[in-house]
Design brief:
The chain has 16 helices and 21 strands. By secondary structure, the chain is of the alpha/beta class. The chain starts with 9 loop residues before the first strand and ends with a helix.
Length: 482
């Protein structure tokens, strides 16, 4: 085993590093942490997604937590990760565990940890968990376990359905009857994941028509990574104009990341969506509180902040950084490039369903099409073109490759990128990448993943034809000029 919590939990290949023993070791760390912090009676919420054997891994975690005389609130069914964040806070549990690998390949599963606020486990909390985990990794037989039936008989395991509480919470944020009566046609894409059935339950039953794709459970995810970006959602994008739909709403495999298609089936980048949501909160909800963004998020946020007098705070990638910063600054929202957006009026954690519904509410309140809102945003905040290139590497050699690639990035001092003078070079605080800014505010970011053997190259430019050259320059840095 080699269990390390990355940007959002620990993830690994099923039956290789991700085993029942490994899950039990992680569960023991949470149980010991909860006992040490006086939360045994408050307990731990345990949820899971639709990946292979997730419900069985969750039951194994429950046996370990219960063996420490810690109360367990165990989900009856797979559900969106954010519903477990909400359940952790709502039930006043001391912590939460979610068995999910989010948008990782179908071969993986994962272990996410939630704090009592529902937020992702903070770096400080995760460091304490790893301090318990690492000595146990070579001695998994030392993990305490209580047979599931015995734990239930002793009243240490309570089974609960996470859907009703979460759906009721979402209903508090929106006028669902207005959505149902709007007469929209909406294509929804849960990517075989945990959000299946949620959009129809929230939006269906009235004049609005819901066309839900890939609602069945399929741990193979149709052979694509369950991340709501092209080419994974090409079928979804094609269906929107085919159905003459007004909008397309998508989420990732555990539903905490949002994806969007306009009425023409064009993919709306996660950077544009985040800027749209900020603009919505300012103009429709009347909010003027700070905003938190990650280092790989759009500069449109900064420009909107300057225009409306809204402070913008930048943090490293991961909601374990965003959530605490939201709390610290009283921010109204926090977001990252991967489509994870959190809202203070709801949770200091990502919620792809709520993010999609905020955009739908923007359409409803303004009586405008997605393409119209996007065009107005670009006129307001200046043009923005974004693309990400994922460079997959060999898993076995990745640790050594990371060292070599970071060496090249640290040494890189380009004078120009995509025909522009390089104005500033900023190493990331997390020591896992470098960001290059050019004279017109465009940027290139090269970042090494903490959860998968891949390097991500991101670029945002003011001109569309500069995206390719910018990404090419980043890839050359990664591959050593090859």
């Amino acid at each position: 085993m080699n269990i390390v919590f990355g940007t959002d939990g620990w993830r690994a290949r099923i039956a290789d590093e991700y085993t029942f023993d490994a899950v039990r070791v992680c569960a023991q760390s949470v149980a010991e942490w909860v006992v040490k912090n006086g939360g045994a009676d408050r307990g731990v919420v345990i949820g899971f997604d639709r990946r292979f054997a997730s419900e069985h891994f969750a039951a194994a975690a429950a046996e370990v937590v219960a063996a420490h005389d810690v109360n367990v609130h165990l989900a009856t069914a797979a559900a969106p990760t954010q519903s477990f964040s909400w359940a952790t806070m709502r039930r006043k549990a001391k912590a939460g565990i979610v068995i999910t690998a989010s948008h990782n390949p179908w071969t993986d599963n994962g272990f996410k940890v939630k704090e009592e606020s529902g937020a992702a486990g903070s770096p400080a909390m995760l460091a304490q968990l790893e301090a318990i985990i690492h000595p146990l990794e070579s001695h998994p037989q030392d993990v305490k376990r209580m047979p599931f039936d015995e734990a239930k008989a002793k009243g240490l395991v309570e089974i609960f359905d996470p859907a009703p509480e979460y759906l009721a919470r979402v209903a508090e944020l929106f006028d669902l009857e207005a959505f149902r009566g709007a007469g929209y046609k909406i294509v929804c894409e849960p990517l075989f994941g945990s959000a299946s059935g949620y959009f129809p339950r929230l939006l269906g039953g009235g004049k609005t028509q819901i066309i839900e794709l890939h609602a069945e459970r399929n741990p193979y995810f149709g052979g694509v990574n369950p991340e709501p970006i092209p080419p994974n959602i090409d079928e979804f994008l094609a269906r929107v104009p085919k159905e003459r739909a007004d909008v397309g709403l998508a989420v990732d495999g555990d539903a905490d990341r949002a994806g969007l298609a306009d009425e023409n089936g064009n993919f709306v980048t996660t950077l544009t969506l985040y800027a749209l949501l900020m603009w919505y909160l300012i103009e429709v909800r009347g909010l003027r509180k700070p905003v938190v963004k990650t280092v790989n998020m759009t500069s449109m946020i900064d420009r909107l902040g300057q225009k409306y007098g809204v402070p913008v705070y930048e943090v490293p990638v991961g909601f374990k950084y965003i959530g605490p910063k939201m709390v610290e600054t009283g921010a109204m929202m926090g977001g990252e490039e991967s489509g994870g957006f959190g809202f203070a009026m709801h949770l200091p954690e990502r919620d792809g369903i709520v993010a999609d519904l905020f955009f739908l509410d923007f359409m409803l309140k303004t009586k405008k099409k997605p393409s119209q809102l996007i065009a107005e945003l670009m006129a307001l905040a200046g043009p923005s073109f974004y693309l990400r290139r994922d460079l997959h590497l060999d898993a076995a050699s990745y640790p050594q490759k990371k060292v070599e690639i970071m060496g090249r990035l640290d040494a890189a001092k380009p004078a120009q990128l995509a025909g522009h003078t390089v104005a500033k070079i900023v190493p990331l605080d997390t020591k896992d990448g470098v960001k290059f800014f050019v004279d017109d505010g465009s940027w290139l970011l090269v970042r090494l993943s903490g959860t998968e053997p891949l390097v991500r190259v991101y670029a945002e430019t003011r001109a569309k034809d500069e995206i390719g050259p910018m990404l090419d320059a980043g890839e050359r840095m990664v591959r050593g000029g090859q």
